[in-house]
Amino acid sequence: MTEAEEKRALAALAVNLCAAGGLQEVLRSSLGPKGTMKMLVSSGDNIKLTKDGNVLLHEMQIQHPTASIIAKVTAAQDHITGDGTTSSVLIIGELLKQANFYISEGLHPRIIADGFEIAKTKALEVLDEVKVTKEMKREILLDVARTSLHTKLYAELADMLTAAVVDSVLTIRRPGFPIDLFMVEIMEMRHKTETNTQLIRGLVLDHGARHPSMKKEVHDAFILACNVSLEYEKTEVSAGFFYKSAEEKEKMIQAERKLIEDKVQKIIHLKEKVCAESNKGFVVINQKLTLACGGVALNSLGDLNTECLGHAGHVFEYALGEEKFTFIEGCVNPHSVTLLVKGPNNHILRQIKDAIRDGLRAVKNAIEDGCVVPGAGAVEVAIADALVTYKHSVQGRARLGVKAFADALLIIPKVLAQNAGYDLQESLIKVQTEKSKSKQLLGIDLNTGEPMVAAEAGVWDNYCVKKHMLHSCTLIASNILLVDEIMKVGMSSLKE
């Protein structure tokens, strides 16, 4: 490599390091339960307050190509696993920062990248060793959801939402089928306070009764879900009717009405058949609610019978200002539920919805993984400790890449402690010292700054999030290190 080429490569690396470091500094203070908020102001003066890394990366205007690549990769982390966005940005930035120490002393970036790959393989082995495999009962799922929600919301609200999030996933869970989180409907209601958010074991519809004379509340009701129009409607295509006299016009109107009345009469006969000797109610809903209420969704009334009916314990209309909602509760074995998010303003509602989505994904991941890993920085400390020991068995200068990888992972516990108001170096040294004595997986207690056994404190992270994070962070950091020139592309100057 000539001197000019070396300068050009170092200049490209410096630009990339600056971009990664800048993105890291933006998200650094948002990590963990004690992280701070960011205020996002759009061109239309819409204001959003959030600490969710995925929301920040999607909403921010990122111009630098390297920062944009990091943002896209870490946003993909959230899309695949539902969490780990902020941690990924911090680790990528720190991997590049640690690598720069050795590159500035003359070490080639390829050697560092090889060391990163060796360290990643060992880190994944350690991750498999420290994971805790157990039956995912409700108690441990509560801990998983609580850990996730605490990083997005204040403690009181997170604790209140934990049970609702876990119960909603357990309700829609069906043995032998993958968990479909689309079966959890998140419905907004600007009403009361955020602590009134609740789980409805059924559905909430965003409309009321179709006619003011209809009942506003029905108990122990049969549910007929039919996708059949029961109203007099105009045709969807242009059509004309020709008649010679008023009598012919009247006959046409009567024929149209009779078609609708025959449909209604079939429903009335079925209602009289099932409700004649009881006080049970009967509700016709023009939506497919069979996953919540049971029964069969009908597209025509030709096959109408009692086996088509579902059941709900309580159906009622709720009016909030000019808006009306229909609550369908008391479903026997619902495979679809509604999380009714309440709050005084749109900002609170958006914040809760983002947090609930992350909480649902965390619970789903734990069930599908069949295992969890200790949180509060315990995994990163354990992997870093194992890599420091392992580097002595690595031949050649690649061990420097292993050392850089180990130091980079410690950014997570250090930033967690720093955001909680403690000295990052002091907290980290306490954890490492205590771990070497007790041989347990220790994280940082953010309430005291002291070491704690994360498993005993009920602080759990998802195994798949950590695994994907190690893969993606190593890959993107290695690729950025190997960039020796940044060129703007466009129309080619070569002529055919």
Describe it for me?
- By secondary structure, the protein is α+β, with helices and mostly antiparallel strands.
- It has two domains: 3-134 and 372-481, GROEL, domain 1 (Orthogonal Bundle); 203-333, 3-Layer(bba) Sandwich (GroEL), CATH 3.50.7.
- The chain contains 16 helices and 15 strands.
- It has helices at 3-28, 53-59, 65-81, 85-103, 109-130, 138-150, 155-172, 246-275, 290-293, 346-369, 378-390, 398-409, 411-419, 424-438, 454-457, 463-481, and strands at residues 38-41, 47-50, 132-133, 184-190, 198-200, 203-205, 217-225, 281-285, 310-320, 323-329, 337-343, 371-374, 442-444, 451-453, 460-462.
- Strands 6-10-9-7-8 form a five-stranded mixed β-sheet. A three-stranded antiparallel β-sheet has the order 3-12-15, with helices on both faces.
- Strand 7, helix 8 and strand 8 form a beta-alpha-beta unit.
- Helix 1 packs antiparallel against helix 4, helix 6 packs across helix 7 and helix 13 packs across helix 14 (424-438).
- The mean pLDDT is 81.
The residue fraction in helices comes out at 40-55%
Shape: elongated
Low-confidence spans: none
Q: How many runs of DSSP E, i.e. beta strands? A: 15
Number of domains: 2
Mean of pLDDT: 81
Strand order of the largest sheet: 6-10-9-7-8
Q: Based on the coordinates given, report the CATH architecture of the largest domain.
A: Orthogonal Bundle
**Largest sheet report:** 5 strands, mixed
Intertermini distance: 32 Å
Q: What is the beta-strand fraction?
A: 15-25%
CATH topology of the largest domain: GROEL, domain 1
